[in-house]
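Database export, one record per block. Field names are fixed; values are copied verbatim from the stored entry.
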Amino acid sequence: MKKTYKLLFSAALIIILLFVLATVLAVIFFPAEKVRELVQNKASEALDMPVSVGSIGLSFIGMPAIKASDIIIGPPEGQEKPLVTVASVKATINILKLLKKEVEIISVEFVSPDIHFVIPKIDTTLAEPAEDTVKPPGPPSLPLPVTLHTLEIRDGHMEIENRNNNTRILLDNISQKLSLDISSDLKKLNSSGVLAVDDISFSHGEARDAINGLKFRLEHELTGDITTGDFSISRCELSVNDLPVTMTGGVGGWTKFNFQLKTGNLNAEKFLQAIPLSLLPDKEKISTQGNFALTVEGTADTEPVKPIIAYNGSIDIDDMSLTYRGFPGSMDNISSHISFSEKDINIKDLSLNTGKSNFNLSGTVTSYPETPEMSLNVNGRIDMDDVTESLPVFEDKKVEGVVEINLSVKGSPPDVKSIKADGVLSFREFVVEIPEILRNPAKLNGS
């Protein structure tokens, strides 16, 4: 995994720097075909996979610029399709800065880059490979410090295929504007920019576009050290289907991640409208009001064969309401504080009202990803008028009264026999119509 992250990050960086090198060589009248061969050979050597460039052209109108087209990187070992194809790349540099021993790239533009990334199937029955005792060589230093004012991507496409769980993620219409400052020894990197993806879809197995209609926009500021793979994200403003999320975090050694995520107060109605129809086909029948907030922080270590992920967070729900068209009642005054981790869920006073009935739920669910164990407390009051209005089966029957609930439920949901419920059901002026032969109606009081 560590090599994968370095490969993806290095691919774009090396292409940019090699085009700068090609321009410099062209300025001293190096033949264009030789430049193309040099780019192909050096890039293939650096990435350890085939690299081909269809053509390279030069322009000295205004700032010197170089344009390359039909670039193909890969395929890497074990993958059928190329890792990256690019219709064209145009780079403009400031030649005068070279006299000051600096490289100033005015702009780099990628048109229609297409990335196909495959996560190969891992044989989990095999022991994790031993740590390589031979330290790989570090990345080479740059002959000069590099400043990139603008890197722009237009009409990009990316496909991520995970052969371990047979899933596929497609990102279409990718656009990006990025600026970079890189020291000659690669130990200092400053970056800021905006990345937008207008269409994201997710599928599993043979199904196509099982989830679609997602889009996001990301504005970031980060600093880092390319030689060690250590990066710090000082600002990360993310919006998913126009819902805002604030993130900070960092990367250590290319494989160790930490993150903090906060949504602030989200409007429930706007959140509902942001959910794709592919996820919620009945969205138009639902209306909601109120607010909620999500906070998550965690770490991830992708160095082992099976990544280690740890996180904790909370969801705070404040006076929400929910109505479903065709259902006579609504759920009102929904409030709760729910905390969670990668293993456990803790529900603190989840409360709601519907009509004249009300419910309260609290408790925990532990080890929910593998062997869930629940310990829940339920109490509330069910007014039978709400039941008769909600369930057609009682439409012509006389059902009156109140049922008060105070229960404790424990056990493992997958093992129904392990579930035990203790507590009290109290019936107050409970009247239900039963067959006349059994003396209709009947009244029940007690518990």
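Remark 1: The first strand starts at residue 51 and ends at 59.
Remark 2: Helices lie at 2-27, 32-47, 95-98, 268-274, 384-390.
End of record.
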